[in-house]
Fold:
Amino acid sequence: DGGFDAALGAAWLTAAADAVAREAERLSMLDAAIGDGDHGTNLKRGFAAVAAKLAEGVPATPGAVLVLTGRQLISTVGGASGPLYGSLLRATGKALGETESADVAALAAAFTAGVEAVAKLGGASVGDKTMIDALSPAVEALRAAAEDGVPTAQALDLAARAAEEGAQETVPLRARKGRASYLGERSEGHEDPGAASTALLLRVLADAAA
Ligand code: ADP
Ligand code: MG
Ligand code: MG
Structure:
């Protein structure tokens, strides 16, 4: 169990660029139902820029990999999700500090700081039908895995599963934040695109760690 190190971070984010490109149409379709239909193209542009940056060189620590990624997303993704995912990764990276490799407990603590940054920036809570509905159960699963002494790959699988369930649970909800909230009750019956992309990104991380 090598933990979460710079190599795993880079492998994750490079694979994420491929996954987001592959799933861009699905993510944009979800956004077309309750938003403006650009979530897939927004993330595709952002993660392509991240992968290009990592191809030039991978920083020495996982924290620096995430901070670089967050910065790229903020500068290249138009739309709400850029600053939100950017803050998530930047705050998670900063919380990892100078560590060469984070164990599950350190990763859970850092990810908690990242999710708190998203909640602070966007003002959303669980149940508002946003990416928080996938991020929050994922971070809880990671913390529980740390307490149970679960190894990294299995802990990340549990986090991805929790995010997938959280994303599914957004379907009946009425959006209270972001563009989808303008639709009021017409936002009910659709999966939130940001929760869906969070589940995708965490599944790619679990696969990279497996
Ligand atoms: P935009 O809505 O600006 O077009 P995107 O389509 O890329 O941006 O992203 C939309 C997603 O961003 C939503 O599905 C939701 O998950 C997330 N989101 C929007 N506003 C907020 C917020 N205030 N807090 C948390 N997440 C949000
Ligand atoms: Mg959109
Ligand atoms: Mg938009």
User: Anything to note?
Assistant: The CA atoms of residues 141 and 158 lie 6 Å apart. The chain has a mean pLDDT of 98. Helices lie at 6-34, 39-56, 62-76, 81-96, 104-122, 132-147, 152-168, 193-209. Residues 6-34 form the longest helix (29 residues).
